[in-house]
Amino acid sequence: MLIRIPGLLSPEELAHCRKVLTETAWVDGRVTAGVQSAIAKHNLQVPEDAPQAQALGQIILKALGTNVTFNAAALPLRVFPPLFNRYDEGMGFTAHVDNAIRYVASARQRIRTDVSSTLFLSEPDEYDGGELVIEDSYGEQRVKFAAGDLALYPADSLHRVEPVTRGSRWAAFFWSQSMVRDDATRALLYNFDRSITLVRAELGDGHPAVLGITSTYHNLLRKWAEL
Q1: Which residues fall within 8 angstroms of residue 14, CB to CB, at 6 or more apart?
Q2: What is the tally of structural domains in the chain?
Q3: What is the pLDDT of residues 52-63, one digit of tens each?
């Protein structure tokens, strides 16, 4: 399930992130890659423990915490602190699958990566190439969203970043451990949740049909959630 969340960051938050990143040192992106990913990966990254990365990560985590779509689609139990990458001309990331387990050093805790997220920080007209390409059962989906928009997709999907041929592509990326690990089940619950929202708007919260489908949703989540 690929979901676009437009405007996760406000224009002011986006401008602040870009300004901070402009003044930040970047290192070889392979520092966070697994053995196989390191072969495929060619980009730059802000060190995970850099104060700038941690401060900007908190801005993103706060935005995620109040975003209805993210919480309905990802059903997050834990979220890996956001990292920041950059693809300059000639850089890309060939096809790979994200590591299944990540260690959160600040929390001394491991998380299972169920959902991958890419938050675009560069506008599409600022660079050529650099599309995020996600392979699923329907074929390839090519993603190049506006700055401030978030792409949410299964971490077990084969995906790549096409080489940048002009300009520079900046983004934040992170993973979530979902309360519901199976992507198809998460998609079912997400679509159910969206339908509840539509019915509530049409009939009102007190209507028996709304009460019935809302209780069914929560009972299904109770059945499938892992905490």
Answers
A1: 121, 147, 148
A2: 2
A3: 999 999 999 999
